[in-house]
Recover the amino acids of this structure.
C-alpha cells in the first residue's frame, strides 16, 4: 500500500477566475492538465473577475 502524501507535496494551480491557488484533488486525477477553476462557482462565473 502506498504511503500517504502530505497536502503540501501535492501540485497546485492558480484559478483562472478568482486568482487563488488550489491543490490537486483525487477526482481531477485523469484530467489535471485541463482543470482551470477551483470550484463550480468559479467555473460558472468565469467571465467575472472577483
Amino acid at each position: 500500500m502506498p504511503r500517504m502524501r502530505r497536502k503540501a507535496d501535492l501540485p497546485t494551480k492558480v484559478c483562472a477566475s478568482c486568482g487563488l491557488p488550489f491543490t490537486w484533488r483525487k477526482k481531477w486525477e485523469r484530467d489535471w492538465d485541463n482543470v482551470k477553476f477551483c470550484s463550480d462557482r468559479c467555473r460558472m462565473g468565469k467571465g467575472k473577475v472577483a
User: Anything to note?
Assistant: The first strand starts at residue 12 and ends at 14. The chain is about 10% helix and 10% strand.
